[in-house]
Amino acid sequence: LKLSGQSFCKPGEFGIDGPALESIAKRITEICKLGPQVAVVVGAGNFLRGESFSQVSNIPRNTADYMGMLATIINACALQETLEKLGQPTRVLSAIEVPAMCERFIRRRAIRHLERGRVVILAGGTGNPFFTTDTCAALRASELDSDLLIKATKVEGVYSDDPEKNPDAQLFEKLSYDQVLAKNLRIMDHSAITLCRDNNIPIIVLNIFEKGNITKAICGRQVGTKIVMRE
């Protein structure tokens, strides 16, 4: 499950909003009750986006990206505490070592936690600058042999245009990886789409705030937009 940083705050605001955080945690516990192993990659757009911050400051892109990675750890720890208060055992594994707050990401360790029924929150991005958390989600999904990558957003799926600006934008129910790349549909960056294509990991893009959407996705029912090898 890929969560954007914007999922943690109210629309148009920054930081972490308590009710929004609890809503996300409840959606994740819904998935766990269905039985699958759950790993979550968190973004940090509610605090800082490295690329855009470097463009409006004197901070170089490398440093700005690392700042963004540190911000994902803040989101991850907040989500961990909220999930555990709901009774769901959780571990945070980070590509950047912060031993006082989380474990270092090691593939076998992550798999062991998943096998024991724990939600694994993956923080710190890839641990390298110039890579988005979408690419991190695709990378971790590939490393952990995931059956599905859910991209949780605030819109219903992938549209032909920005639905907030164009009311006639078309919602796609299904697309191929190659169509997403050819149409330059910016729901995820090209590196993430290519990684999922090369490892044949289906992607479902959905609105996480719509109750029941994640359950539908896990149960194989139509929801949002599904991106697969062939349309």
From TrEMBL:
One of its GO terms (molecular function) is ATP binding. Pathway: Pyrimidine metabolism; CTP biosynthesis via de novo pathway; UDP from UMP (UMPK route): step 1/1. Its EC number is 2.7.4.22. GO terms for cellular component: cytoplasm. SUPFAM superfamilies: Carbamate kinase-like. Keywords: ATP-binding, Cytoplasm, Kinase, Nucleotide-binding, Pyrimidine biosynthesis, Transferase. GO terms for biological process: 'de novo' CTP biosynthetic process; UDP biosynthetic process. It is found in: Cytoplasm. InterPro entries: AceGlu_kinase-like_sf, Asp/Glu/Uridylate_kinase, Uridylate_kinase, Uridylate_kinase_bac. The keyword Nucleotide-binding applies. Pfam families: AA_kinase. It catalyses: UMP + ATP = UDP + ADP. Residues 1-207 form the Aspartate/glutamate/uridylate kinase domain. Belongs to the UMP kinase family. PANTHER family: URIDYLATE KINASE, URIDYLATE KINASE PUMPKIN, CHLOROPLASTIC. This is Uridylate kinase.
